[in-house]
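LOG
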Amino acid sequence: MQQPDRARLYFFLGLLGSAILYSAYNLYVLDPYVYTSMGRGVRHGYKFGSLLLAWLIGLLVFRQIAPAWLNQLWNILYAAGLALLIVLALYDAFIHILPPSLRQPVSTFHEALISPIPYVVFGLLTRATRRTTSPK
């Protein structure tokens, strides 16, 4: 298999994994009956695990096809997002329950990180950098 074909295959397999993760999270965890029956700690665990899986999918794919600086940018984005969410989760768990006016934007930020959108954006950046650096 040629290099561009292999990179395309890796990208689409990662996109499929990202879409499956996002769909499974939305269909199972955010189901109203399941969501109301699980505790806050369990919800925090699912959010943490889904974010780690989204980061891992991108790490495995972009390590193969992206330049080193773009892979490092992916890691910084997810590390900063994870750190912010962990601080807010610890505050929520041990100090005081987050108010609903802050809880909703935090959930939206989490969903944005696990959605396929950052993956596609980094894929487009990878493709753009490969086109400008490859000889014709």
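LOG (cont.) second protein
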Amino acid sequence: MTRSAMRALLLLLVASLAGIALAEESEILTGTFVWERDDGEVSGDLEARFTSTGDKTWDVTFHFDWEGEPRIWKGTAKGSLKKGKLEGEATMDQTDKPSTFTFTGKFKGGIFKGTHARIRKEGEPRATGTLTLGR
């Protein structure tokens, strides 16, 4: 085998291993959300895709349908995806008025149960509902 062929093989191996490592640092959790409104609750299925950005820090995207339309909220989270506290925020940017929401809760027995709140213009959160996620 030539030297350049060995280099190419080595680069391919390193790239493959890097891909495996990145795949292990992302996780998809599924569950449900409840949105509490003055005119009643809205609920639906929820998928949260977490990608590691460091020690117990994550980029997260929430995927769900709202009034028949697909939605994606993007944000960050901090905490464990297995046990204990997890919290973060995500931004809804698919409208002409982007909104930021916080979420916080805990994993217990492999299930995350938490709450979400909308950040008002004044910077204070207003409770908007609950979410549940698991594997």
